[in-house]
Amino acid sequence: MGYTPHILVIGGGVIGTGIARDFAIRGLDVTLAERGTLTAGITGRCLGVLYSGARAQSDQLAQRLKHENEILHGIAGHCINHDESLLVTDNEDISVDELCQRLEQRSISYDVLEGEEIDATEPALSDDIDRLIRVPDASVNQFELTIANARSAQRYGAEILTQTEVTDIAVEDGTIDTVTLEYSPPGRASDALTPDEPVADGGVPGSTSGGTMPGETNDEPKQVESGETEERDPDYIINAAGGQVEAVAAVAGINMTLESRSETTVCFDSKPVETPLSRYRSGNQEATMTTKQGTGVLGTVSKEVTDQTAVTPANTKQLVDEMKAIVPAVGNAQQVQFSCGVRSTHPSLANKHEYALIDHGDRHNCWGMTTVVGGSLTTHRYIAERVANEVCAKFGISRECKTESISLPATEEAVEAPDMSAPESVICETHSVTRSDVQHALADDLVTETDLNEVRIRTGVGRGGCKGSCCAHRLVMELYPEYDEKTIRASLQSFLDDLWTEQRGTLHGNQLKRAMQTYIFQKECLNLATPDVTYVSTSSEDEEHTTSEPSDSDEQRINIAAYDSGPSSTARERPVWGERQR
Amino acid sequence: MSHIVVVGAGLSGSIAALSAKEHAPDADVTLLSTAPERYRYESGLLGVLGYTNGKDHPIESPLESFATLSETHPYRRIGEGAMRDGLAFFDNLFDAESSLSYSSGTEQNALVPTTVGNVRPVSRYPEANSAGLVSDQRPMHIVGFNELTHLDAEFVAECLDSTMPYDVDWSTVPLPDQLSEMTALAEIGRTLDTSLDDSQQQVCKDLAAAVRPELDIEPRVGFPAMLGVENHAAVRSEVASSLHAEVFEIPAAEPHVGGLRLKRALRTLVEEAGIEQANVTVREFDSESGTIQSLSVHKEDTEESTRISGDVFVLATGGVAAGGLVGTPTGVREPIFDCSITGPSKPSAWSDSQALGDHPFASFGVDVTAEFQPASPSGEATYENLHAVGTVLGGHNAVQEESRGGVAIATGYSVGKDIAERY
Ligand SMILES: Cc1cc2nc3c(=O)[nH]c(=O)nc-3n(C[C@H](O)[C@H](O)[C@H](O)COP(=O)(O)OP(=O)(O)OC[C@H]3O[C@@H](n4cnc5c(N)ncnc54)[C@H](O)[C@@H]3O)c2cc1C
Ligand SMILES: Cc1cc2nc3c(=O)[nH]c(=O)nc-3n(C[C@H](O)[C@H](O)[C@H](O)COP(=O)(O)OP(=O)(O)OC[C@H]3O[C@@H](n4cnc5c(N)ncnc54)[C@H](O)[C@@H]3O)c2cc1C
């Protein structure tokens, strides 16, 4: 075959990266565009249960999940934190015995725990529970998994673009034409307060060869290029934008009506359980508790979203009560955050693992794009396989899917640990994150360095209750002096805003207290938000008024002599250099 | 003889108790507070008014800017005269002879450097910070340590150097061996404290020795705030004399040594004034015909409660950061007396979308009468003998204004004096 089609995958969630990987392994040209950080969408907010089929309603779905669970154990073992979960079931719904029978039929391994075994396995469980089942529902680190997918795709030649948003898709004569990508990483000059102001070194923000190319050495401090756009001409587009698939389709002028549902999880300050566990309910109503980077996460409550711009957490009281009944400690654990993931779905999709592929050539007379609706983390590899099969067929390519037998690379192997000459020092005391952990995360060539979320998903910094309040400003200094002061500030600001967005939905109880303490620290003590000013020293006569400054610059000149100069400035003499020479 | 009971031993409560005692030496004054854990979040630098509406750079003179404040702002209620008296009262408590001396120089704001290379306007600053004003125009040298990530000396120096009309240099050096395993600045501070007992004062000398070769002619040298907790003056002076330079600190991380020092100093002042202190949490109260009779208080980890009766009560429990106000899914409450609170009740309206925006939650607080009695929505005093001071007062964003310290001092002083004279 002479011609290799170029595929553009939109969306860097677990499904988008899975699709990019599949195409790349089959030898197609692949570009993946993600507008934020990988995992910025639903993937970063999900519970990360790798289902085994134990809970599935239908045997058919159970077989699919079981198969995928086994494959992912084989290729992504390093992303799996726990191999099993505990299922507590109330007799009113389905009894332990009935469940066991079902698991036998499906050939899913399990064991039944009783009495003291329960206490030995998970002491946090209520004493009222005398029987439960242990099933191979695993728990994965969705961040690792998604990054590993992207890295694997990259190894097979895919181009992975983060901080790159698809802003336009042109359609000519019923066929996809050019696609506009906008590259706008945090820390770019337009985030800073005075975009037009020349930088100290004489350059203009955005005109220096900024970027974050791996291995690039440049003595000038780096800056991030601002809002660059670029056109691409892909042969086929896969819209895997998760909760935003409708919006992406709309960019191509396609009108799809889907249902949006937000799913809320409750994050705790502590870890009420060691082993992931669920209170089983048939249907989608079960309550599941897992642990993420040392803290507990409880999910989920689903509700319909009517306005994507104003997603509020669902009422989680019932969810917490459900879990409290089997894990009493949940009642006392401090809730630090509610996290909402919005996914697009369709009434025809019977359960959360189901997906639909919408071929816009068939449906909307727009050849060259397929949208993925629904799906789950557990089934992402399978979905990718189906997508790639379908698209390859369109191009007359008959290459087999190989994703099930090729292992995903682990970060430790893929990224060389940086050579730290300085002594080891701690950046985040709460999560024991050190400078070398951060440097290691930054050394990854998949990373946009000025996006501190990249460091967060790799190290756990800023998770849990503290939200980076004490360490964000220390973390960002790891980019210095490689990047200049403005970039550092803009990057920090954008990171704090991201953390805040996650937090502000649920400001009550301790969370409001914490938010105020953080606000006091960042606003007063650090005074992060100081605008661009230059201080000058003049007596009042010889200084023209500040309004005579060029109007295109927000920079203000402030006369420092107008402020308190302290008790010592005039009273004491300057020490003499010679004195210090012993 | 009357009994004055102050709830909350932050800056405002302590000043209120001290002012009451000063103006009514015969009165019994009791200061009740939960363990003041939150001092660790405070740097010890006090703002009176750093920013006013519509300006984004620090104002020069707090007192001259009062006219721009809203009429319900605590400063407007107090008036300029009482405001000056309050600050003078504070200055007197923390004068050059006291164990923790604060500057009381001018009426102008001073600008201090922050760990991210910005400046912050403050009005009262401890001696540890006085050589480090960026509004003092002498060159400075900032020191960081390889092992500590709290302060990146190069970053701070470069930022200041490019914005200030004088040179700011920097160096990053290794910590002396004795300190190199420590990660908390307060721990380093305590080690330096005890090192002074050692006649060689070796650690301070080693610290200075690491820095000395880096200095040029700068007359002042800045460190991350870690130079002693209790013996800070001696530690600082030891380092300064080894360096032949003035030495200052830049507040860097919680727990802040500056806050810990102020806490100790306040505690001592309160003790010396003969004010009774108790580490308790106030939960409930008893009232009779619009007058508070007594409070029910709990010791830290016990469920046992005791009653404390009094003639007049001062609410100085701080804002949401200190537990003086609590957020619930249906609104913000003042948990002891259930005073009515200003501000939106729906949590979705509590915050700005930007992390450092003008958050409505920062303006939460009780509304008061002209006598600083918590007021009902119709403007009447809720209880005739209850007064509120400090951050628990609502209606203005004291964080954005940089006015928390000044509000605490001025309202604490003024209310303490009024009730002493009235009861
Ligand atoms: C609360 C919750 C819990 C869940 N728990 C589980 C579970 O335990 N097990 C399980 O198997 N599944 C679970 N799921 C389902 C699973 O998380 C999702 O199905 C899966 O993560 C979806 O991945 P995705 O790649 O389709 O979407 P996303 O992760 O949302 O990825 C889409 C990406 O597209 C990007 N994007 C959007 N617009 C553009 C644009 N214009 N240009 C470029 N990029 C764009 C977004 O930034 C986003 O990163 C859960 C879901 C939720 C909400
Ligand atoms: C050590 C220190 C450092 C400071 N640093 C700065 C600074 O950097 N910048 C600045 O502008 N201002 C600073 N200040 C001033 C400080 O901000 C003000 O003191 C404070 O914000 C307002 O004071 P407050 O007394 O109203 O409240 P807080 O200082 O918050 O004190 C409230 C007290 O009430 C107690 N309390 C709450 N509820 C109860 C209850 N139910 N029963 C009993 N006790 C209760 C709390 O434990 C707390 O001790 C500092 C003050 C101190 C003491």
From TrEMBL, chain A:
Q: Cite the entry's keywords alphabetically.
A: FAD, Flavoprotein, Oxidoreductase
What is the E.C. number?
Answer: 1.1.5.3
User: Source organism's superkingdom?
Assistant: Archaea
Q: What does the record give under GO molecular function?
A: glycerol-3-phosphate dehydrogenase (quinone) activity
Ranges annotated as biased composition (Basic and acidic residues): 571-582
Q: What stretch or stretches form a coiled coil here?
A: none
Give the reaction(s) catalysed: a quinone + sn-glycerol 3-phosphate = dihydroxyacetone phosphate + a quinol
In this chain the FAD dependent oxidoreductase domain maps to 7-179
Q: Where is the composition biased (Gly residues)?
A: 203-213
Pfam families per record:
DAO (PF01266)
Q: Which cofactor does it need?
A: FAD
Region annotated Disordered, chain positions: 181-231, 537-582
Of the GO CC terms on this record, one is: glycerol-3-phosphate dehydrogenase (FAD) complex
PANTHER family named among the record's database cross-references? GLYCEROL-3-PHOSPHATE DEHYDROGENASE, GLYCEROL-3-PHOSPHATE DEHYDROGENASE, MITOCHONDRIAL
Q: Hey, which family's this protein in?
A: Belongs to the FAD-dependent glycerol-3-phosphate dehydrogenase family.
Which protein are we looking at? Glycerol-3-phosphate dehydrogenase
Question: Where does this protein come from, organism-wise?
Answer: Halovenus rubra
TrEMBL record, chain B:
InterPro entries cross-referenced by the UniProt entry: FAD-dep_OxRdtase_2_FAD-bd, FAD/NAD-bd_sf, G3P_DH_GlpB_su
EC annotation?
1.1.5.3
Kindly state which keywords UniProt assigns to this record, in alphabetical order. Flavoprotein, FMN, Oxidoreductase
- In its UniProt entry, the species of origin is given as Halovenus rubra
One GO MF annotation is:
glycerol-3-phosphate dehydrogenase (quinone) activity
Question: Which residue windows are transmembrane per the record?
Answer: none
Name of the gene this protein is made from: glpB
NCBIfam families recorded for this chain?
PRK05329.1-5
Q: Where is the FAD-dependent oxidoreductase 2 FAD-binding domain?
A: 4-398
Family annotation (Pfam families): FAD_binding_2
Report the protein name in the record.
Glycerol-3-phosphate dehydrogenase subunit GlpB
